[in-house]
Structure prediction request, 1712 residues.
Amino acid sequence: MTTSTSTMPIFKRRESDARSYCRGFDTVFTSARNAEMTDAQGRTYIDFLAGCSSLNYGHNDPDMKAALVDYIMDDGVAHGLDMHTGAKGAFIETFETHILKPRSMDHKLMFVGPTGANAVEAAIKIARKSTGRTNVIAFTNGFHGVTQGALAATGNSYHRGGAGAPLSGVTRLPYDGYMGKDVDTADLLEQMLLDASSGLDAPAAILLETVQGEGGLNAASGPWVRRIAELAKKHGALLIIDDIQAGCGRTGSFFSFDDMDVQPDIVTMAKSLSGFGLPMGLVLVRADHDVMGPAEHNGTFRGNNHAFVTARVAIEKFWSNDTLKTDIKRRAKLIEDGLKTIADMVPGAYLKGRGMMRGVDVGSGDLAGAICAEAFENGLIVETSGPNDEVVKILAPLTIEDGTLAKGLDILIQAAAAKTETTKIAAE
Amino acid sequence: MTTSTSTMPIFKRRESDARSYCRGFDTVFTSARNAEMTDAQGRTYIDFLAGCSSLNYGHNDPDMKAALVDYIMDDGVAHGLDMHTGAKGAFIETFETHILKPRSMDHKLMFVGPTGANAVEAAIKIARKSTGRTNVIAFTNGFHGVTQGALAATGNSYHRGGAGAPLSGVTRLPYDGYMGKDVDTADLLEQMLLDASSGLDAPAAILLETVQGEGGLNAASGPWVRRIAELAKKHGALLIIDDIQAGCGRTGSFFSFDDMDVQPDIVTMAKSLSGFGLPMGLVLVRADHDVMGPAEHNGTFRGNNHAFVTARVAIEKFWSNDTLKTDIKRRAKLIEDGLKTIADMVPGAYLKGRGMMRGVDVGSGDLAGAICAEAFENGLIVETSGPNDEVVKILAPLTIEDGTLAKGLDILIQAAAAKTETTKIAAE
Amino acid sequence: MTTSTSTMPIFKRRESDARSYCRGFDTVFTSARNAEMTDAQGRTYIDFLAGCSSLNYGHNDPDMKAALVDYIMDDGVAHGLDMHTGAKGAFIETFETHILKPRSMDHKLMFVGPTGANAVEAAIKIARKSTGRTNVIAFTNGFHGVTQGALAATGNSYHRGGAGAPLSGVTRLPYDGYMGKDVDTADLLEQMLLDASSGLDAPAAILLETVQGEGGLNAASGPWVRRIAELAKKHGALLIIDDIQAGCGRTGSFFSFDDMDVQPDIVTMAKSLSGFGLPMGLVLVRADHDVMGPAEHNGTFRGNNHAFVTARVAIEKFWSNDTLKTDIKRRAKLIEDGLKTIADMVPGAYLKGRGMMRGVDVGSGDLAGAICAEAFENGLIVETSGPNDEVVKILAPLTIEDGTLAKGLDILIQAAAAKTETTKIAAE
Amino acid sequence: MTTSTSTMPIFKRRESDARSYCRGFDTVFTSARNAEMTDAQGRTYIDFLAGCSSLNYGHNDPDMKAALVDYIMDDGVAHGLDMHTGAKGAFIETFETHILKPRSMDHKLMFVGPTGANAVEAAIKIARKSTGRTNVIAFTNGFHGVTQGALAATGNSYHRGGAGAPLSGVTRLPYDGYMGKDVDTADLLEQMLLDASSGLDAPAAILLETVQGEGGLNAASGPWVRRIAELAKKHGALLIIDDIQAGCGRTGSFFSFDDMDVQPDIVTMAKSLSGFGLPMGLVLVRADHDVMGPAEHNGTFRGNNHAFVTARVAIEKFWSNDTLKTDIKRRAKLIEDGLKTIADMVPGAYLKGRGMMRGVDVGSGDLAGAICAEAFENGLIVETSGPNDEVVKILAPLTIEDGTLAKGLDILIQAAAAKTETTKIAAE
Prediction:
């Protein structure tokens, strides 16, 4: 690979060492369309990362693009704090019509600072204020962001260490499946909730992802999530589902919990919500827990009007009928087949995740990393996940053309073959 | 005012009660240009709020707008996580050329989640990691955001109460002028730092705004800031200047501390950085404190490429020569004169702030609120500030046309006259 | 019962509502000898509470009493801060000879404020300072005291609630047996320690009781404790065994872990250490973790010289040969037989604890309370334990005469019979 | 000095490095009477330390001693948890008669674990529970103990560092006189309480010592304490006076605040309360703040019956008439004169404290330490105080014979003369 020579030296000279993805994908990208990105040398890459699930509808969707350009050309309000704007009103109406009403959700929309972490921070504050309690239950391998409140709920030790100070206010419990197939970890939660001497302080909230995107694509079962929801309700805690990475269609339906027969008290959203990759954060909160006073959780960029424009188009285009859901189902099968091929190459490897949030645990971070690096050499952007980066994770745009998906899977399978072959040879 | 009848009911029905600015400015805005906003009824308002200093260059600057539309039309990368993009590289180069180099700053650029709060969270984490200490010194009336780490440093009790849990890790000390003219509050800081039994834990950082935008436009003197900087250095703490609201020209120069002969270890930026009101956050950190590892402080929207495009244009257009600085100086004088007229109407009232970050303390939140409400009736968007909202605050775009500025000041003066007259009559 | 009329009104008038044991045992005690207490009316009670295991050698042991009176008569130093005294030196030498040397323990003696809670606070501080970590792992149903640091490690929600503020710095995990017989809870600990994304911060210490005295007489198995010890060692955490209630012979040997083949890094002691019921606290810490500097953990009453005098006699009299151990074994069997008789009366009841730290779980706090109240009417002091006070707990002096023990057990059995009969009748 | 050769090696071999006073006073004490201690070699020392104010009535007072021995000989209850005992009842009645009633105090007595730190921990918990707030205001140079809750309120950085973790829940403000004579530090407290944006969370309690025993004998003025009391009341905070070191006559009256016209909501007591140097802790709490439920703040040694016996005698003997008060006044004058003599030897030296809680600030810890070491060589036990140990502190028994006091002062003056002479010579 010769792209590194073309990388502008300005990044090395002036960008903080905290930069990360650019290290693994060491080129300068300039343009992108649906599932493909092009760099300054004109080379095109298939994108199986999709902004970590922020580009579920691909790059530069033409309809969103047109609407956004029109809005800008008309001097539409770009920044209006949290004042009413036409763009905001139109988004809320669309969201109500296509998302909330069909699900009989009475939730209010609370626009927060345009990041997922901000949505999680707000959700935790709402739960604490609404219940008068402080303890938040979060799970092993959960990832909820790196600002102090969200980071306390995040499991990853590398990120936690970045705090430089102890994190508090969160009790950690084992996620579904963490103790093996024979143990229902909800039993432990229930016992600790019932036991007046367990040391578990009465929780303000139980916070979970239905699929742990950063934690290794662990997918909770519907019954487990439903039981957690019941325990939350019974013990006066709010159920917060962090749908930042798993939401917006990633698992096959708009919300990741659509088929689980639960109604969370709070849902956090960000990433693909704007549809176009623009920063946007949102908290959905049941009307009776909508307890934050005016500006009590404030912020300058609550309400990114450009994002409202594209988000509205995204909902209308993709969630007013079932076309996308059908597409996802078909593509998910293709991905599953591809990953099974890889799993067959690595003893002990197994598939993880669900919908188009899938991966294969190849048992070691070194191997997974090598496969991804090899794939990038061959024109595919794909990343690892999991506590030890041992999962090769596919987060392709939901809108990826079937042919491009097949091509990307081929590259990945070849990369896996090359690296497992290498490993075998080295071992011999 | 009849605008309320035209407000779309969707907001009331579905937007969280946490919404705030829309309550005082109860109409639906649709378009905006430089210092004027237009609502759905076609009514135009002069904007003395400017997105709380997020729109220093006005709404929809034509050069930024053109560059942004071109970028979108060319399918420029909208979202690329923190991968290298051409837009990012160009921004960094421009920022280095026009901002860092002329000031001999060796700082690195750390792109963080696109909010000011995220920049503050990152800054605190950097300071803690770099020093191995946890205590952060912040000041009375400081405002740094409402996520848990930033909120601990924020003074406002209403926002602090929103946490629903005790906040820790911050020691609060009196800001410049807090104890009256005869007491240099830096003396107290110094004594506590020197005293092994003061109870002040060795600080990781001292965090301050040079002008407290939300805290009532208190402006610290240069000598005080310099002394704090020296104390920080002597005692091994990092000096963090939160320039989110006061930066980007608001006080007359790019950084609010440009004339103070201090070089902060860390500067936090957001609000007007993108130039166009798009979400963007940035931490400037001296190279030797650039200690965060790859992705240690991560986030999906680090690197809003649309914002990079407009931010580059903003720097090039406004900070490659002294035109804007000259304009600010002239306009600041107009504002000062206008505010003096108001101050003369209210016994005990006095001016606050500096540059184009000015206000008048009218002694009561009720009066200040009444003035702003009256002004809005007459076509001016203007807000209050301070612990009891007792300061009428002007944050007009730096680029406001002189005529528009004069017109806005007239509306404000008339509003003040009407409300002080009312008060007098009521008192008689 | 008519004793309440004899209770001095001064207690009700002036003693805080925080008083507790005096409510269940509502009389005024004046004198006591070995296993019997006498009240102001001259009524004598058998003592199956023994100061919650603070009077393992009974009340007013004649040898300790004689030595103490001699010491006082000779104007022995009563209070000497932590200066060297003859009484202290003699105690340490005796403790070294009969306790430490036979076990090849290199531990240092750190005299702390004369309470168990203070010993736990010191132990936690030592672990944090020695490891540079802050997280302490404690277990469900653990009880370690009610000062802020110790209370964070205590599981009981009533006591935790008394803090009036969130408690932090402790991770709670399930104790041995908490998840039923089929789950080894050490597996969960191990997995979380190995998993870089479990959210379990690297622990400074693992803190446990081998038998949970307040938590319901749950007894950990030797293999479980040994495995915890191994995990602590492997992962750089200190093992703290809180032997405050279970130590000093209560389970059959001087330390409760004597037969478990583990050597804790830190042991906390109090309660029966002085032998005479006098306040005394002690931390045993391995020499290489003896990291507290001079007075870094200080306190006025470190070193209660009267307690040193009686503690020395206690060690010499009871731990220089095996007589007491033999006695405990025999008495423990008598207690076990008596409790089995009670267990047979209550469907589902079962025995808990080990050694002379035994009880019977009768399934409900109401029934257990009723049995204890009935027993007190008939001259027996006995208390409940457990998260819902559902365990009738026997903590008789280890030195109780066999006849007195039998008599006390008879009273308890009769009380259980009466109350279970009542329950049956009521149920019919 | 040759005493070190006579020190038993057991201390060095087995006592923790945390031991402290024994380092400066390196001999083995065996007996003591009033103001004199005798070591194993038969050497007698005058005691100007008095157990850090724990022996206000001297060592082994004959009346207390007689009562205690009688009690023990009669098999009086030594340990009864917090059950009613005759000894406890008699103490409470005496305390009510001679201490509470004459001051019209309606306070309840809450017996806590027998240390001052435990009393402070309980006081903070009461305040938090009673107010529903968590923040506690404490002052520069305050010392309240080293368990986690109390340590958070303690100013000393060496002790704070011993926590090994950040301490929270306390806001630190400058004590009376901290900012020089021209600044009333209560002004800062008032302003921060009134300012909704000061960052000072509404306090549960304001905690202070009227004379800071460990912090350098800083004495607050009556008006300052009164103003703090008024601010506490006005802002819904409880006033906690920590009278552990300054109480029991040390400043001239039973409580250190007797002449200040304030009535604290809570008073913490320990040290000299038992009269005999036995461990005892007590919280006095106004009836309407007596909110702790039964055993909510519990502990094994609440209620040290031996201490009740001696404490009762102490109250009866010393506080049923004014003899001791008269004696203290006279002896305080002698001490003041002696310290003035020393102050005259050291440029810049000045007296600190009040009553028989006095010292001289000699400007350097080295000099103060050298004076104390020299004094010990010559038969006087005396210690330093202050953030840098720069104060030579006299805490002689209140009952010291005038002749012994004079003799001790002579030794101290000679030591000061020798060391200042040395310093002068060295400087020349």
